[in-house]
Amino acid sequence: MKNPKKLIEVATGREVADLVFKNANVVNVFTGEILPADVAVSDGWIAGVGQYSGKQEIDCTDKYLCPGFIDAHLHIESTMVLPAELVRMVLPSGTTTMIVDPHEIVNVCGAQGMQFMLNASENLPCNLYFMLPSSVPATPFETAGADFTAADMAPFVGHPRVLGLGEVMCFTDVVGGGDVILEKLAQLSPRPVDGHAPGLTGKSLQAYAAAGVKTEHEGTTFAEALEKARAGLAILVREGSAAHNLAAIVGGLVDNDLPTNRFMFCTDDKHLDDIARDGHIRWNVKLAIELGMKPVNAIRMASWNAAVEYGLADVGAIAPGYKADIVLLSSLKQVEIDAVYKDGIEARQALQNIPAFDAEKAQPRVMQSVKAPKVTAEMLALPVNGKTDVIDMVPYQLVTNHLREEVPTQNGLFVPNETYTKLCVVERHGKNGNLVVAPLKGYGIVGGALATSVAHDSHNIIAAGDNDADIAKAINQLSKIGGGYVLVKNGAIAGQVPLPVAGLMSTAPATEVERATHKIIKKASAMGIPYYVDPFISLSFLALPVIPSIRLTDKGLFNVDTFELI
Question: Of 209, 361, 381, 564, whose CB is crowded by the most CB atoms within 10 A?
Answer without folding.
Answer: 209
